[in-house]
Design brief:
alpha+beta, conserved putative lor/sdh protein from methanococcus maripaludis s2 fold, Elongation Factor Tu (Ef-tu), domain 3, about 40% strand, elongated
């Protein structure tokens, strides 16, 4: 048995209908119909919007070419002095004068430090006197030897007397040679009391002061040669076979990232280092104005040769962090592709992966371009 009850109320509120059927109570309100109408309206609006024509983007395109592109290896390194020496005294004595300060520019042979050479000079004079004495004794012994030879040949002297005279001649010659050697050694000692620059350079550190006593192995100054400098770089094992002397190198410094310096490889290591499995190479960098300094960190690019690659304009490549992408035209639409570009000079970039020769790409990539857009 079914009962239908109608209940209503006046005013602005909704009208409810209650239907009782076999114990199940259903409540129907006029508001349900309003929600259904709103949903239908929204769907209709979406359908109308979807049917609007798709907007096309305008962009110039260019065909992917193919050319021989320089192949570069990017490595890190640092600048070092061409020569870096802790200059030793080379003699023993007290420092009487210092002729170089930190930052002093010196030429090879310039006096750096002078030691008290009075004792060395006195010893030198003694050695000269000994040489004179030894030479006189040698001359006398030589004359005795000549007479002994003559008498021995005439048969007026015995073999023992002849042998004794020859031994005296040999002893006198040895003493003269010993005196001459000692004289040479003392001349060197006197010369070493003035410590001179072993090469052109700049004094980076002064170690001694007047009044100090130094030994032969004492360091007096540190001298560095700044023109040229050495660019020392390490090449991984995978690329070591491609490294040759005189290969072009360009590098930038951390302090001047926008300035590129050009040079070429001057020294190539004989083999890989055991611990790091890399090859150490060096390039000489002119530094006449002393604008570069030892210790500066460098990022270098070594040209390893050329390879045939697809090429696109630099403007066609758009960077997103560490990624590079281009927009390829396919069936009238843009296709976004991630590419791997080579490091090359000029207005074009070689592409190692991502595009093929003959394809068309957007000549000037823009941030407003999207994958799948229709091209006008």
């Amino acid at each position: 048995m079914q009962k239908l009850h109608r209940q209503g109320r006046t005013g602005k509120g909704p009208t409810f209908k209650v239907l009782v059927a076999g114990g199940l109570v259903l409540t129907l309100g006029a508001g349900c119909g309003q929600r259904v109408d709103a949903a239908e309206t929204k769907n209709a609006a979406a359908a109308t919007q979807g049917s609007a024509p798709e907007a096309a983007v305008k962009a110039d395109t260019v065909q992917v070419g193919e050319a021989k592109v320089p192949r570069f290896l990017t490595v890190t390194g640092s600048l070092t002095a061409y020569e870096d020496s802790d200059v030793a005294a080379g003699a023993t004595g007290k420092v009487v004068s210092v002729h170089a300060e930190r930052g002093s520019v010196v030429r090879k042979g310039d006096a750096l430090v002078k030691l008290d050479g009075r004792v060395a000079a006195a010893s030198l004079e003694e050695a000269r006197a000994q040489v004179t004495l030894a030479q006189s004794q040698k001359q006398l012994a030589d004359a005795d030897c000549d007479r002994a030879d003559k008498l021995f040949k005439e048969g007026t002297s015995s073999v023992a007397e002849h042998d004794r005279a020859q031994a005296q001649c040999r002893n006198a010659a040895a003493q003269a040679a010993s005196a001459a050697a000692r004289l040479s050694m003392l001349e060197i000692n006197v010369t070493d009391t003035t410590i001179r620059a072993p090469f052109d350079g700049v004094v980076s550190e002064r170690v001694v002061s007047v009044g100090e006593y130094v030994r032969a192995d004492s360091k007096v100054v540190t001298l560095v040669a700044l023109n040229p400098l050495r660019l020392s770089i390490t090449v991984p094992e995978s690329s070591a076979a491609f490294i040759k002397k005189d290969q072009p190198v360009e590098f930038t410094l951390t302090a001047e990232p926008n300035k590129t310096h050009q040079t070429k490889l001057s020294f190539v290591g004989a083999g890989l280092r055991n611990g790091t499995r890399d090859l150490v190479v060096e390039a000489l960098v002119p530094n006449e104005k002393r604008e570069l300094m030892p210790g500066q960190f460098a990022t270098a690019r070594v040209q390893l040769g050329e390879q045939q690659l697809p090429v696109v304009p630099r403007t066609a490549v758009l960077g997103e962090g560490s990624r590079r992408k281009v927009f390829v035209v396919s069936d009238g639409r843009l296709e976004e592709r991630i590419v791997q570009v080579s490091e090359s000079a000029g207005d074009s970039l070689g592409v190692m992966a991502g595009v093929r020769p003959g394809e068309r790409v957007v000549a000037v990539a823009r941030d407003d371009l999207r994958d799948g857009q229709k091209l006008q």
